[in-house]
Amino acid sequence: MGKLRDKQRKNIIIPLIEMSFLLKTNCLLAQGTQKPNREFSLVFGLNQPIVTHGFNFEVNYWMEHFVIDYSPGIGLEYKDALVSDEAKAQHLNFNITHSVGIGFGYRFTKNFNLRFEPKVHVWDMYYSDQFKDKAYKITTYTTYTLGLGAYYRWTPFGTNGNALKGFTIVPSARWWPNITTSLDNNEYKYFNTRTGKNEIHKANNIGISNTPFFLNVSIGYTFGKKH
Q: Same domain, yes or no, for 20 and 89?
């Protein structure tokens, strides 16, 4: 009788153990194949249309700890208060026909990230009274920058259950120094018909007051936002 009971217990316990093992294995497999949280943001810079009368957008791919971005700018005008004293004295204005680059960043928090950013900027140079008249363009040159950008991605309606949760605001501060240019010795020597002298134009920096530093605010939308 005792042997019979032991056999009955085994017939019950062994299937339970096997079922438990299978359930645990299935759970682990499900966790392993579960798609990680991935988000995409599309944002548009405000400085570009307001300050430089051009256009810029940025695409971000968000991972758990990292972010990758691609950002082109088109038709950015540098004139009046945006050019250096040297350029003002030489009566020069500039049009960045296109500016493009990528960024690789680390997310220190859910919202704050710091990015390493190589960029390329193509400058058309004109006299201020013939600005963007292709027939009188003085020269074109390219600057190559390599710097850092600090970004804060804010989704003010992120906890909402509706479509507003993806609305995104991104203030940023960037330091993009020139590492090289297409000009010999990073300068352009020419005869200036406005000053009547041989002049030297030193390659522009991309930021505020001909420095590598600038601020911006972008707005847009984050797709696939989970939290």
A: no
pLDDT 10s digits, 17-61: 444 444 454 545 445 444 556 899 999 999 999 999 999 999 999
Domain co-membership, 47 together with 25 = no
Distances (CA, A) of 132 to 77, 93, 99, 139, 166: 9, 9, 17, 12, 38
**SS3 at position 14:** helix
List all residues 6 or more positions away from 181 whose beta carbon is below 8 Å from its beta carbon: 141, 142, 143, 144, 203
Q: How far apart are CA 174 and CA 73, in angstroms?
A: 15
- Structural domain of 6: 1-34
Same domain? 83 vs 24: no
Whole-model pTM above 0.85?
A: no
